[in-house]
């Protein structure tokens, strides 16, 4: 055992780090495995300010986030992606002996973030149709301090109904923060619960620029919540969470022309998504696809391994979720550009299983 291993905290010794698409899968030339946008956009940078530390919360950026989300600037916290907000919530609100609660199958970073903080994670699986099991959540509520609900959910693409989100907020009122992860909300904007932060003082909404805005490489996201939650998280966030280049680029992406570009690219993605949905419905080797409210599609095939390997051989990377709870035989495809979809469907049309 190396000295570093011996000195590492016990919970970190046991930790298997998050197998992000970029970390666990290399090669390929068509990446349909991380729910990114296929489009890289151009931005302008003013470097004349780089000798100075950035503002704690760059004003223009906060105003842009607030205007876009329809909340007050004091109800926004900008940081390095939704992933940072997940960890901040745990570090801000969980005592050592308290827990988070998640409803798998869902985004993997909630459990991993908890583990890095040595906080236990209660797992209450969804029903088979991926709706929440409200009775089971109620039964598991003791000692829970932060609840993560993802809608549209990654990796299933399903929505959690407003009625169920309200039930969870009620179960945990006066007890726990309920974080609704809206990483994919641009694909289902009318289902956002951002306006509920006025009504529920235990609600936090997580957003990101990484998905529909096509800025995964920038690392920027934001939390929406009442001012008291924002102020508590502001105590824990590092002193300069948003660099000047990040603030400049994200602000441009949220400008009128930036928003129009996002909408246009979203429409293109949805067009390609429909082609994939139609194709999956035709293939004999696909026995189910889950209705998606996002830029990715999950489906089931008995031949999942052969299909996955055939796509890898063609340089196309998708994601295998078949080992996860309720996801037998499931693969997930992130929707790419027209050319990428052409290449994907050319291989899938020929695949015989
Ligand atoms: C991609 C993703 C995130 C991470 O977003 P970043 O802002 O890139 O850290 C968070 N939640 C869900 C559900 C995601 O799919």
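^ structure tokens above, recovered residues below v
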């Amino acid at each position: 055992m190396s000295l570093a291993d011996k000195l590492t905290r016990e919970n970190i010794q046991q930790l298997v780090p998050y197998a992000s698409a970029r970390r666990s899968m290399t090669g390929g030339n068509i990446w349909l495995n991380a729910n990114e946008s296929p489009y890289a956009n151009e931005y302008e940078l003013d470097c004349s300010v780089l000798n100075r530390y950035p503002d704690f919360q760059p004003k223009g950026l906060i105003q842009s986030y607030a205007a876009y989300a329809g909340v007050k600037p004091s109800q926004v916290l900008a940081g390095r992606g939704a992933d940072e907000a997940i960890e901040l919530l745990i570090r801000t609100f969980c005592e050592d002996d308290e827990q988070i609660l998640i409803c798998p199958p869902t985004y993997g970073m909630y459990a991993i973030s908890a583990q890095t903080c040595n906080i236990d994670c209660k797992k209450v699986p969804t029903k088979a149709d991926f709706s929440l099991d409200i009775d089971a959540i109620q039964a598991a509520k003791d000692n829970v301090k932060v609840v993560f609900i993802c809608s549209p959910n990654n990796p299933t693409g399903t929505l959690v109904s407003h009625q169920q989100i309200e039930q969870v907020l009620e179960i945990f009122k006066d007890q726990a923060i309920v974080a609704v992860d809206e990483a994919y909300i641009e694909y289902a904007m009318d289902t956002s619960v951002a306006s509920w932060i006025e009504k529920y003082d235990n609600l936090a909404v997580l957003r990101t620029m990484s998905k529909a805005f096509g800025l995964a490489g920038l690392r920027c996201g934001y939390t929406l919540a009442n001012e008291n939650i924002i102020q508590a998280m502001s105590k824990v966030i590092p002193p300069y969470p948003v660099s000047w280049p990040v603030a400049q680029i994200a602000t441009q992406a949220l400008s009128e022309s930036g928003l129009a570009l996002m909408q246009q690219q979203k429409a293109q993605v949805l067009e390609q998504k429909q082609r994939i949905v139609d194709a999956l419905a035709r293939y004999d080797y696909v026995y189910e696809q889950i209705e998606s409210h996002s830029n990715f599609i999950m489906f089931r095939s008995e031949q999942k391994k052969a299909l996955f390997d055939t796509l890898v051989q063609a340089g196309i990377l998708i994601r295998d979720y078949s080992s996860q709870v309720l996801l037998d035989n499931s693969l997930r495809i992130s929707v790419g550009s027209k050319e990428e979809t052409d290449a994907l469907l050319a291989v899938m049309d020929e695949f015989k299983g």
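The pocket of pyridoxal-5'-phosphate is lined by residues 35, 81-83, 107, 150, 154, 181, 183, 208, 210, 216, 221 (CB under 6 Å).
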